[in-house]
Amino acid sequence: MSHSTQEQHAGSAIALGYTSLDEEIVLDHLPVSGNIPTWLEGSLLRNGPAKFEVGEQRYRHWFDGFSMLHRFTFQQGQVAYANRFLRSDSYVESMRKQRLTGSAFGTTDPCKAIFRKTQSALINANVSVDQMVGEFVAMTEAPVPVRFDPHTLDTLGVVEYDDRLTGHHGCAHPHHDGTRQVLSFMTEFGPQSEFKVFAIGNQAPPQRRLVGSYAVDIYSYIHSFSISEHYIIIAEYPYQMKPLDLLQSGKPFIENFHWYPEHGTRFVVMDKQDGHVVRTFQAESFFSFHHINAFERDGDIFVDLAAYPDATIIRGLYLDQLRGELHAIELPHPSEFRRYHLPLSSEATTAGYERITNMSIELPTINYRRYNAHDYGVAYGISTDKQNPAVIANQLVRVDIRNRSALTWAEENCYPGEPVFVEAPNAQAEDDGVVLSVVLDGQKCNSFLLVLHAQTFQEIGRAEVPHHIPFGFHGLFFPGIE
Ligand SMILES: [Fe+2]
């Protein structure tokens, strides 16, 4: 193949990852190659946008597509698969009217969604899944998660909180603070906007308890946060908007934000127990979607995240960009694995960082159950091969944090999604287990579930589905779901 033909091929393969998957499918046995460990019992549940147009109308931004839930179920070395669209209000209405309805991140007027959202609205929760308040939930950045059945993937309704906490913009990445509570945040927009951190306990009906809050005059777009043993750590990037502009501009949600590098990035450290803001630290401006982990050592806090020099990545995720339909494709900078040092034990007010690896990393994951909020040694993510920079994620990376080394998995014309670590039974080492990733095969135009040995990062096995699975965002493995 000539160089330009190769590029064209890669371009069309990537476009396939942003092409709608219309069929809802249940497959009891996927063809498996290699050996999938028999101890791997349970289900990988994943979420992501899978439909980008209705009738003649198209969504503009990747983050807007209709949520599809995917289930890969493992039993005795066999793999079953099912998928189903989340029956959000906008999905149901759009299908009925055969045109796009409702609102989205980067397509239509946000006021309809952000300010008219009620506690009972079933939003297009296309970002992540979790198990909390005794339910399986799909989430996006709306404050109310959507419940679903992990077996049938049927949409069940919204989580009905029995409290008076209010907010407009929330978080799809809550943290499990041990088994005691789930921590998350939301912002209430108004003449005086307020950033609120809340905890959800194990009681039924579920209640959110305000942990702490602070006023925000200018709102930073924040996708995730981290926790350490004693603290909640929020990074406020200078990708900002004045909340009243959101009401008045008529622009899609994300287009109200602008990059103000002169503001820098501010870390806010909140006490988990009483919610007071312990300290803030100023850093040079950067942007991030995903914190990787945080922990305390010698009285200081270390925050690891996937950092971009600025927020151009969000512009890079418009569908015409991603599908290669534009002539001048802006390639966003790949994100770096940075470790920020918040010197809590000293009087210093600034935070510096070191780079952990020269590999780029996104959709980062760790051995969450045992190492979240603690000093840790291994992180996984998707990454871009520097030799082949014209595509986005075309490899998986396993970073050995202490040795500052990395292993990768890649295959020609293959585009992997978020790697999910699953611990082996009676595991001793942090990385004793497997890593699961849904990979798009651009050559065969279908997807497969890849199983890697978490320590060697070598393939153990794979299970193919007959169709392509559009690139997704986040998933988790649940041992109990057979
Ligand atoms: Fe995310």
TrEMBL record:
Which molecular function GO terms apply here?
carotenoid dioxygenase activity; metal ion binding
Name its GO BP terms in alphabetical order.
carotene catabolic process
Q: Which UniProt keywords apply?
A: Dioxygenase, Iron, Metal-binding, Oxidoreductase
The prosthetic group or cofactor this protein requires is: Fe(2+)
Q: Has UniProt tagged this entry with the keyword Membrane?
A: no
Any note on cofactor binding? Binds 1 Fe(2+) ion per subunit.
Quick one: which residues bind Fe cation?
A: H173, H223, H290, H474
Q: Which family does it belong to?
A: Belongs to the carotenoid oxygenase family.
Q: What is this protein called?
A: 15,15' beta carotene dioxygenase
Q: What is the species of this protein?
A: Dictyobacter vulcani
